Amino acid sequence: xxxxxxxxxxxxxxxxxxxxxxxxxxxxxxxxxxxxxxxxxxxxxxxxxxxxxxxxxxxxxxxxxxxxxxxxxxxxxxxxxxxxxxxxxxxxxxxxxxxxxxxxxxxxxxxxxxxxxxxxxxxxxxxxxxxxxxxxxxxxxxxxxxxxxxxxxxxxxxxxxxxxxxxxxxxxxxxxxxxxxxxxxxxxxxxxxxxxxxxxxxxxxxxxxxxxxxxxxxxxxxxxxxxxxxxxxxxxxxxxxxxxxxxxxxxxxxxxxxxxxxxxxxxxxxxxxxxxxxxxxxxxxxxxxxxxxxxxxxxxxxxxxxxxxxxxxxxxxxxxxxxxxxxxxxxxxxxxxxxxxxxxxxxxxxxxxxxxxxxxxxxxxxxxxxxxxxxxxxxxxxxxxxxxxxxxxxxxxxxxxxxxxxxxx
Length: 409
Ligand code: SF4
What we know:
It is a single chain. Helices cover 43% and strands 13% of the residues. It is α/β, with parallel strands linked by helices. Helix 1 (3-11) packs parallel to helix 3 (30-44) and helix 7 (156-166) packs across helix 9. Iron/sulfur cluster binds at residues 64, 66-68, 71, 73-74, 111-112, 143, 188, 191.
């Protein structure tokens, strides 16, 4: 196999095989990969705009029984000092703050709470959609949908169909980590396995829900296991396009494992987990080259920091993600966002320009809302809400029972 021949295929706009992707991963020079990844980006998203989204991440509960070894976000049921379920009052306040900052979407995820009934989730989506019709709801990663299936006995088709009818617009790609069951059995044996993660996404694609795909590297996985993940995503995307004539995943986002405050960070293999910035950039390029059917690739500033995220824009990324406003999961595990988990729009523009690109605001379907091609333009400075510190148990299970009977606040 010849590295230059494979790279030339990419420059010609051709698909590369799994074996060719693995070969590039093992053999190609870093700058050759960057060049090929940028060529792929230009084939799929021509121009020099880098997009971003104004949205808010909301974690409705941190109660979880899944015990992933890389997670410091969750609290076990009964851990009154740490656990919480956000009430509608708290959620409403967060959404109103987001709207005042110009947000067009909320991205809502939570732990696998064993005592929340299925009606909690349907009520939540119905209430947000009717109270705040202007905000798009992207919520519940595949493992949460699987969990709802366990508590309700319903199929994924029923759950996603009902949630969509109530106002759900899309699913975040969270919980993908590495879609290879040897890795998943090792680090998160109680969490959704690869085929089921893809299976939930395929149902979402059949219903026309927007979805994204994610990947976390640094679980001591092999390069072949990374390629297995990418191949599963590419195949699912091919299937969505062939069956429904539309995209399944509209974006791909990867980052490196953060383990500082987690059980993995205390394991005897702790020095072998995680990845270097160079490895992240190499992976960013390979993903862009191989996933020739996923148009948008996001640079992950919350996990990688600004400088590496800017560099990723030169390794095939065309999007700078979202302003976040709040982030609780990777921050708890030790990502750079532990000290700063939100970016105002002015800072977002500055970072994208420093990277050498033109900032453009988009919506969650990647429609361009505004292009800011005047380098002197200064967006109005908006005060960001304080970062949520600690966890406050705001809703007891008794209250949840009342609340799911319709007596909502
Ligand atoms: S990563 Fe998600 S599923 Fe795993 S323990 Fe944390 S909250 Fe639970």
